[in-house]
Amino acid sequence: MQPDDETIKADQIPEEDWEASPNDETLLNEEELAQVEGDDDLTPDFTDEEAFPSFQRGRQAAKLMDATQIYLSEIGFSPLLSAEEEVYYAKRALKGDAASRKKMIESNLRLVVKIARRYLNRGLPLLDLIEEGNLGLMKSVEKFDPDRGFRFSTYATWWIRQTIERAIMNQTRTIRLPIHVVKELNVYLRAARQLTQKLDHEPSAEEIAEMVDKPIEDVEKLLGLNDKVASVDTPIGYDENKSLLDTIADENSMNPAELLTDENLRTHIESLLDKLTENQQQVIARRFGLRGFEKATLEDVGKEINLTRERVRQIQVEALKTLRGLLERVGLTQEDLF
Fold it and tell me: Where is this region: Sigma-70 factor domain-1 (predicted)?
C-alpha cells in the first residue's frame, strides 16, 4: 500500500522562520543524547497536579488526556531504525522518495514525545508541544545528510528543540510588548542577574537602578509588571539553561531579514546569480523567488525547464555550494536569504 501524503508539508514553512542548520558544535553529545533516548516510558503521569494542573478541572482535561494517551499508544508501534537503515532511508528521502521520508518520520515520533515532555509547564499543552516538535522532525528529514557521519536522532533532536522553543516564545505575552520596552527589560534583568551573583541575594529595584544609572521610578514601573517580567526570564530549554531573555536579538546587530528589505542589497544578491551557470541560475531563481519568479517546488521547476526532479535537486545543491561563500561575505547564509 502506498503511503498517504502528509497533511503538513515542512516546505510550506517560511525559510526565514527557521534557525540556521546546526553544526557539529551545536548538536548533542553522546551523554546528552542518551538522556533524550533513554526514557522508554512515553506516557506522562496525568495525575501529577504540578505537571497537569488542569487535570482535575473537568471533562475538557479528561478529553485531552484521552487524546494524548491515544496518540502515544499509536506511535508506540513504530519501530526505531538501525544506523544502517537510517542511512538507507535518508539517502532515498533526499532523492525524493516519499515512502522513505514517511518511514523516517514515523520511526522517530517517539523521539519527539520524549523531547516534548521536557518542555511541560512552559505554556503549551503536551499535544501542542508534540505537534510543533513533529514539524521540526519533518524539517530534519529534509535536511539530514547521512554522509556527515552522525546518527539521525542527534541531528533531529536539534531541529525538534528549535521548533518547540520557537512555539513557546510565540505563545508568551512578553513577546508582544513594544520592542523598546523589551529592550529596557533586557537591560534591567541582565543587571539583576549580575547583582544576584555578586550580592548573593535578589536585588531590589533601587540596587538595579543604581547599577544601570536609571531613575528608580522607571525600574519599579517595569519590574511591577510581575507576570511579564517573570515570563521573559522563564526557562524555555529542557535543561533550563535558556530563557526567553536569551532569545532577544542584540539591538546593535543587523537582522538579515531587515537587510533584505533594502532593494539595493537584494539587487546585489540577485546579481550574484551571474556567477552561476545558466541552468543553476534558472533553478535558483525559480526555487527561491528571485528575478521576478514565484517560488516553485523541485518538481515544478523541472517541468518548466525540462529536467527531472532529481536533476533539479542536484543543480540546486551545486549552485548553493557556489553561492555560500559569496553570501557569507555580506553576513548572510543561504537559510537567511531563502
Answer: 66-99
